[in-house]
Amino acid sequence: MTSAASGPDAIFADARLAAVYDAFEGDRDDLAAYAAMAEEFRASHILDIGCGTGAFATSMARRGLRVTAADPAEASLTVAQGKPGAAAVRWVHGTAQDVLPLQADLAFMTANVAQVFLTDAEWMSCLHAIRAALRPGGRLVFESRDPRRRAWEDWTRARTHRLVRTAAEGEADRWEQLRSVDGEFVTFETVTVFRRDGERIDSSSTLRFRSREALAETVERAGFTVEEVRDAPDRPGREFVFVARRPGESSPGERNAHD
Ligand SMILES: C[S@@+](CC[C@H](N)C(=O)[O-])C[C@H]1O[C@@H](n2cnc3c(N)ncnc32)[C@H](O)[C@@H]1O
């Protein structure tokens, strides 16, 4: 089983797979809502935990925000560092613990990073580190798939196969294949086949599907106040978007989430 404790999955950590990650993720409509939240909360210093290939971090830097971005997958960071705006980002090869000390205004975990933390100890330790990396009054925004929607039931070759022409590697096929469901733990393979030379690379992943109640309880236990649980606009009803606040003073001029 691949877990946060044993290092990031091959799909993020293998250089050949990391080079085609963006091509398979498409135009990233999911990130617009998070960029809007940075404006809504008048953040000037963003923290991006599990930044992957840096699509969000570099887009925030191009808007002129200060950005700190961390990921344990070095191959993904290498891709990120080649993007426009990357020179303005502080890149950290590691986890939330490795960004400290910091006083960010707003932390993000986009694209269901929260689901890679399989044990309660890993998840709580990530939440505690993010809390410590926020200024008093700062916020954490993260998403996690709603287990009641049973997204894994669609993770078959027939339903997920796509063929993409990638800039880095030419045409490549990719599909997901469910392996097992064990309570909240869902294990699946992501298979990539490079048509250029026929190489096939399988990446095994396990994700944890926590309930909304369990997420809220753990976030509160880590010292945050859950302000809201929103819908992801591009995936209505499928994911929880948590907005949690580190108690404390707001900076001058900051607008409250409920204003
Ligand atoms: C689904 S990707 C999301 C990447 C990025 N946030 C995005 O929106 O494209 C999950 C990311 O979590 C990272 N990750 C795995 N374990 C982690 C940990 N313990 N702490 C922080 N990030 C981790 C992986 O390396 C991977 O880049």
CATH superfamily of the largest domain: Vaccinia Virus protein VP39
By DSSP, the count of extended strands is 11
Give me the oligomer status.
single chain
* Largest sheet, spatial ordering of strands: 3-2-1-4-5-11-10
The tally of domains stands at: 2
- What is the first-to-last residue Cα distance? 44 Å
Order of helices and strands: HHHEHEHEEHEHEEEEHEE
| Range of helix content | 25-40%
Residue-averaged pLDDT, rounded? 94
Small-molecule binders here are: S-adenosylmethionine
What name does the CATH topology of the largest domain carry? Rossmann fold
Instruction: Note the main sheet.
Output: 7 strands, mixed
Work out the strand percent.
Answer: 25-35%
Q: Which secondary-structure class do the elements indicate?
A: alpha/beta
Backbone CA Rg: 18 Å
Which stretches are poorly predicted, pLDDT < 50 over at least 5 residues?
1-5, 255-259
CATH architecture of the largest domain: 3-Layer(aba) Sandwich
Q: Please work out how many helical segments DSSP would assign.
A: 8
General form? globular
CATH class of the largest domain: Alpha Beta
